[in-house]
Specification:
330 residues, 8-stranded parallel beta sheet, 11 helices, 14 strands, 18% strand, alpha/beta
C-alpha cells in the first residue's frame, strides 16, 4: 500500500536512494525537507521529478508525487507544517561523521539532537505513527566487536554522543507518546549516488579516479562494517512495515574489514578497470576514531527479516560504475 513519506535530508545520498526506490515501487507520495547544504536539487532531479514548494503552500492541492521544501531541520515551525498528513517520517538529515563533530561539537549537538527532537515533536503533534531515525554504530564507542544492541553505550566522539541522544529521544517518544520509532544503526554505507559523501569508500574512489593517493588515517588496521546502499534501503523499507516501536537495530553485514583492505580492493579494482595507477598513503590517526567496528545483525534478521544481499566485491564494482560515469566525481 502506498504511504505518505516525509524524508529529511532527502536530497542526500540516503534520501535520494530511498526516493528512487519508492518511486520505482509506485503509489507513494513523498515530501522532502532539505537545506541543500550537501545534496542539491540536481541530485534529487536525477532520481525523480519533483515540485518545489514552501511551507505556506503545504495545504494546497497538488498532483506532485514528490515535493521538495528547502529548509532547515532546526526550524521547528517548518517541521510541524511539513509533517501534516504524513504516515511516516524518515529522519536522515544530520551532521555526519566523526571529523566534523570533533572540529565543532556544539554544531554537531544542535543539529543532531535538536533537529531530531523537532521531527519527533512534529510526529507527535501531527499524529504521525511511524518514525525511522538514521543512527550509527558510533554510540557504542570503543568496545570489543561485534557491536550489538544490548551493549552499554560509551561514545568516543561527539558525533556518537549526538546520535545516542537521538536514540534516547526515539525511545522516550515511543514509550511516552506511542510513536513507533525505530533507530537504525547503519554501518559504513557506500554505493551509487554517494558523490557528496566523505566516508572512506566514497573518498577512496574519488581520490583514485582523480589520480590522487588513497589517504588512510593511521596505519589502516582500523576496521569497519561496509554495507551497500541497496541493502540499507531494504532495511528502511522493512522498518516501515513492521508493527514494533522503541527498538534499535544494527544494520550492516556482520563482516569486519580493515580500512587498509578496502583501500587495496579499490586500488586493484580501479587499476584493473581503468588502467590508472593508484597509490596509497598514510597520515595521522584521527581523533575520535574507533579502532574496531563491525556489527552483530542477528536482531535485525530476527525482527525485521533483514538480510544483506551484496558482498563487498559486488558492491564495490557497482560503485565504480557509478563513479566512472560521473563527469566530475568530486
Amino acid at each position: 500500500m502506498g504511504m505518505n513519506w516525509l524524508i529529511t535530508g532527502g536530497c542526500g545520498f540516503l534520501g535520494t536512494s530511498l526516493i528512487k526506490r519508492l518511486v520505482m515501487e509506485g503509489g507513494h507520495r513523498i515530501r522532502v525537507v532539505d537545506n541543500l547544504s550537501v545534496g542539491t536539487c540536481d541530485d534529487l532531479a536525477a532520481v525523480c521529478e519533483f515540485t518545489e514548494i514552501n511551507s505556506e503552500s503545504l495545504g494546497d492541492k497538488s498532483s506532485a508525487m514528490v515535493e521538495l521544501i528547502v529548509g532547515d531541520i532546526l526550524d521547528e515551525q517548518l517541521a510541524l507544517a511539513a509533517a501534516k498528513g504524513m504516515d511516516i517520517i524518515v529522519h536522515f538529515a544530520a551532521n555526519t561523521g566523526v571529523g566534523p563533530s570533533v572540529e565543532d561539537p556544539r554544531m554537531d549537538c544542535v543539529t543532531n539532537v535538536i533537529g531530531t527532537f523537532n521531527y519527533l515533536e512534529a510526529a507527535r503533534h501531527n499524529k504521525v505513527s511511524r518514525f525511522i531515525f538514521a543512527s550509527s554504530g558510533a554510540p557504542a564507542g570503543e568496545v570489543k566487536p561485534p557491536i550489538h544492541e544490548e551493549l552499554p553505550p560509551h561514545p568516543v566522539s561527539p558525533y556518537g554522543a549526538s546520535k545516542l541522544a537521538g536514540e534516547g529521544y526515539c525511545s522516550a517518544f515511543y514509550r511516552t507518546f506511542g510513536i513507533k520509532t525505530i533507530a537504525l544503526r547503519f554501518g559504513n554505507v557506500y554505493g551509487p549516488l554517494s558523490k557528496h559523501k566523505n566516508s572512506v569508500v566514497a573518498k577512496f574512489f574519488k581520490q583514485a579516479l582523480n589520480g590522487e593517493p588513497l589517504e588512510i588515517y593511521g596505519d589502516g588496521s582500523q576496521t569497519r562494517d561496509f554495507i551497500y546502499i541497496d541493502d540499507l534501503i531494504q532495511a528502511v523499507l522493512l522498518s516501515a512495515q513492521v508493527d514494533i516501536g522503541g527498538e534499535a537495530f544494527q544494520i550492516a553485514t556482520h563482516k569486519e574489514t580493515t580500512v587498509g583492505e578496502i583501500a587495496k580492493s579499490i586500488k586493484k579494482l580501479v587499476e584493473t578497470r581503468t588502467g590508472k595507477e593508484v597509490a596509497i598513503s598514510f597520515g595521522e590517526t584521527r581523533l575520535g576514531d574507533v579502532k574496531r567496528n563491525y556489527s552483530d545483525i542477528s536482531k535485525a534478521r530476527r525482527m525485521l527479516k533483514f538480510e544483506p544481499a551484496f558482498d563487498l566485491e559486488k558492491g564495490l564494482q557497482e560503485t565504480l560504475l557509478y563513479y566512472n560515469a560521473s563527469v566530475d566525481p568530486r
